[in-house]
Amino acid sequence: MNLQHKGGVAIMLILLAGCGVSNQAHQTVISQLADAKHSLDKINSTLGLVANSDRDYESNLASLHTRLNDLKDKNAELTGQIAKLKAQEDFVFQSAGGKIDAKDFQGALEAYKEFIDKYPSSHRIATATNLIARLEQTLKTNRR
After folding, report:
1. DSSP assignment of the chain, as one string?
2. Reduced 3-state DSSP string for 91-114
3. The pLDDT value given to residue 96
4. Does this model's pTM top 0.70?
5. CA 15, CA 11: separation in Å to the nearest integer?
6. How far apart are CA 144 and CA 142, in angstroms?
7. How confident is the model over 58-71, as pLDDT tens digits?
8. Per-residue model confidence as pLDDT tens digits over 84-133
9. What is the dihedral of CA 131, 137, 138, 141, to 10 degrees?
10. 141 CA to centre of own chain
11. Confidence band, pLDDT 50/70/90 cuts, at residue 19
């Protein structure tokens, strides 16, 4: 046997002999050590859950950042499409007005009606409706 092993055996023999501590005190210490080990195991388990929870939060945060960037890209795309649609709406409305300038009242009337059909939520609906009424009156007057 090597010296280190002999020392370990000697310590175990002293512990087994009780080293002058009563059995009740020995059992109390053993019970306290078992309770401390149980508490330590609970703390380690909780720390493991917290570490897993932190990883979950980090993963969720990364996922949310990715989703936010995707939504920003989609927002930019939709903003561009909205601008394009507004430009088209402006063009159609102004084209109908150009027909009035050219004295093509029937063409203007049809163009404004098409405008209302194509852009029913436009802020220019009231104006187009008033122009239609005036154009119908003008056409009626011109037919007489």
Report:
1. --HHHHHHHHHHHHHHHTTT--HHHHHHHHHHHHHHHHHHHHHHHHHHHHHHHHHHHHHHHHHHHHHHHHHHHHHHHHHHHHHHHHHHHHHHHHHHHHHHHTT-HHHHHHHHHHHHHH-TT-TTHHHHHHHHHHHHHHHHHHH-
2. HHHHHHHHHHHCCCHHHHHHHHHH
3. 94
4. no
5. 6
6. 6
7. 888 888 888 888 88
8. 989 999 999 999 999 999 999 999 999 999 999 999 999 999 999 999 99
9. 180
10. 60
11. low
Closest CA to 126 of 115, 136, 110: 115
State both tokens at 13: 């023999």
Contact 135, 112 (CB under 8 A): yes
**Which residues are within 8 A (CB) of 135 and not within 5 positions of it... i.e. 6 or more apart?**
100, 105, 108, 109, 112
Tokens, residue 102: 């050219």
Q: pLDDT band at residue 15, thresholds of 50, 70 and 90?
A: low
Site of tokens 């220019």: 124
Return d(Cα 96, Cα 110) in angstroms, integer.
8
- Report the length, in residues, of the chain: 144
